DNA sequence: GAGTGTGACTGAAGCGCTTCAGAACGTCCA
DNA sequence: TGGACGTTCTGAAGCGCTTCAGTCACACTC
């Protein structure tokens, strides 16, 4: 009693008594056959339980698969709790949504991006890479497959579309604001510089050779204004790690009067750390974040931060991807503006 | 000057002077050829720029595609901002991660789930459906394709694995707690009962015929304890809509002393609405939520809510999906426990 | 009534791979 | 010395579909 074989185009074709090509046309090119015949074919298909052309076979024949790949720097399991990433995906999705394309998520291993094998097996016509280390093997793998690619927050890759944000300038903006307020002693709190799970104080050498462009640029932006400052690296951009890191930075004597954070999430942790020490923000310590995720406005106190257009970033990436699918050439990078959003977590030093 | 054709298995085979089968084996069954030959083949492949077997062709030949499909009730663009959904996806992803499978997201149209065409074209071996309306066409489409499926929070479908939570019992738990505190006048705040974008007061008939099982069960759970109460429906589970809806419910005279919300997100809006009216939680109005997303603990005041194991839900679904892939039979539904988490948003009525 | 379209359908050649039943050639032991 | 067995590699048959160059029949035109 083996299961009945799934019907195929041929099944339907011979049931109706036409050629396979005709059945295919019934689905894909209704103008190629008479309406009456088409009806008959569709009816027969329905009664045979044929659900339409198999997507894999179709993809093989047409050489495209109506899917946009998205490579994550981190495991899926941590991606969805990352507000900034979620918003970017949001924007990307809204574009992809409208075109009957699916989104194929390729989870990263640790923070190094997806494994090459994952990339090699993923079925997508175009790939969007988000915030991978400069030397991610996944980037090479996409290249090797010859898939068009758009990178977000990534360095120049030949023949690749790109959307980016002025992380360096944004960080400088924030640091300058604090400097203008009179701050001179800073603590810098950052997420990973390398995908090695390392945390702790950051050496100049580690900073200089960091493969995460975004991290590097933000830190350089801060330091350009402030001069050398103690930096604490968290393995991930999480509130908890930020809290612990900020505590370390605040334990220095003399205590820094301001904390420059590479993300809002870290800044939320920093706010907490300041409270933990019985101090107040911004009276005792000023805190700035980066990203301007929605929660920044609701934080206690509302967080001064650098706004980058996260949704727009995703949307643009999606549009570029779709355009590449249509055979367009990559073109120059799309650069989106950043701005400083001043709220209540910053003030003149006491 | 047309682009050089992409190399295929054959390209490599003839370059090395072996059969195509051997090259295939070099990639998929290293034990089928001598190590030396394998080396030669891989080297030749590398120098020809061959990135390994094409995933689509391989899928066609092997009849599976190393991908798990995930059908969303809502558009992708709103999914990522949904904390509960994110956590479920999280759990699912962590399972899928470990098996070199990709996650193919199928965005829903409005709230009715993905369109059948999207389902028909998606390349996945197994599909996970999350919180779709009972009559979603997407469910039929998956059936038609003969794909194994696991549903989360969905009614019984023949031949389908299922993971679910006792929404009815959970809601009853919360309502009972309030009732025991002495509350008798309630307002009930819910998200969509149907995917029609409707909002406003809910009639008994609309409640009875709601195609969203989860919504229905939670409301029935509340009402079983409290008896008939005014219900306000929000088109989506968002803080803003919750705030507006709660305001409506609170404008009744006599004013309800407690608000029963179908989700934490709505409850957050309700907290805000109470403040908007110059009242205090829980002194003037008690509020309970449902889900216990992380933010519930940080709310002001911390929210009393029904905890459901969201991550676990996703994880179980992932495991079931993977097991179905291995040819397992669906088996009975997996039921996860709920519990009441009492925090500071509930108290005896003034 | 020969020439010219035109709409409706078909045949066959792929798309790039996997897989399975062998073939070819040793090796080993009785 | 010969049969049993292993290892290594190959041929060919698919997987289910698209697509393009036709074929065929039939109406039109002058």
Automatic annotation (TrEMBL), chains A, B:
It comes from the Bacteria. The keyword Transmembrane does not apply. Keywords: DNA-binding, Transcription, Transcription regulation. One of its GO terms (molecular function) is DNA binding. Residues 7-62 form the HTH lacI-type domain. Pfam families: LacI, Peripla_BP_3. InterPro entries: HTH_LacI, LacI/GalR-like_sensor, Lambda_DNA-bd_dom_sf, Peripla_BP_I. The keyword Transcription regulation applies. This is LacI family DNA-binding transcriptional regulator. It comes from Saccharothrix xinjiangensis.
């Amino acid at each position: 009693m083996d299961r009945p074989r799934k019907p195929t185009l041929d099944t339907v074709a011979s049931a109706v008594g036409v050629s396979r090509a005709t059945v295919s046309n019934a689905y894909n090119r209704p103008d190629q056959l008479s309406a009456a015949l088409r009806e008959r074919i569709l009816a027969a298909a329905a009664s045979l339980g044929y659900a339409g052309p198999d997507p894999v076979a179709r993809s093989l024949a047409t050489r495209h698969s109506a899917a946009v790949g998205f490579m994550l720097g981190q495991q899926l399991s941590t991606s969805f709790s990352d507000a900034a990433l979620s918003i970017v995906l949001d924007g990307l999705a809204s574009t992809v949504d409208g075109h009957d394309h699916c989104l194929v998520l390729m989870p990263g291993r640790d923070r190094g991006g997806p494994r090459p094998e994952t990339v090699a097996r993923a079925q997508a016509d175009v790939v969007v890479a988000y915030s991978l280390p400069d030397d991610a093997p996944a980037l090479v793998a996409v290249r090797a497959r010859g898939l068009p690619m758009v990178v977000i927050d990534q360095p120049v890759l030949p023949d690749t579309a790109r959307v980016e944000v002025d992380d360096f300038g944004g960080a400088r903006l924030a640091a300058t604001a604090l400097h203008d307020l009179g701050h001179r002693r800073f603590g810098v709190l950052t997420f990973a510089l390398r995908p090695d799970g390392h945390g702790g104080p950051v050496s100049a050498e580690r900073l200089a050779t960091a493969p995460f462009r975004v991290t590097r640029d933000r830190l350089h932006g801060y330091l350009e204004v402030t001069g050398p400052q103690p930096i604490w690296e968290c393995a991930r951009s999480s509130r908890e790690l930020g809290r612990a890191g900020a505590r370390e930075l605040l334990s220095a004597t003399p205590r820094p009067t301001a904390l420059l954070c590479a993300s809002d999430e870290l800044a939320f942790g920093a706010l907490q750390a300041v409270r933990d020490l019985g101090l107040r923000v911004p009276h005792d310590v000023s805190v700035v974040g980066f990203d301007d995720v929605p929660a920044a406005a609701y934080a206690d106190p509302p967080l001064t931060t650098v706004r980058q257009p996260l949704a727009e970033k995703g949307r643009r990436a999606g549009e570029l991807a779709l355009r590449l699918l249509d055979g367009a050439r990559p073109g120059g990078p799309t650069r989106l503006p950043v701005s400083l959003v001043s709220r209540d977590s910053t003030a003149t030093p006491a």
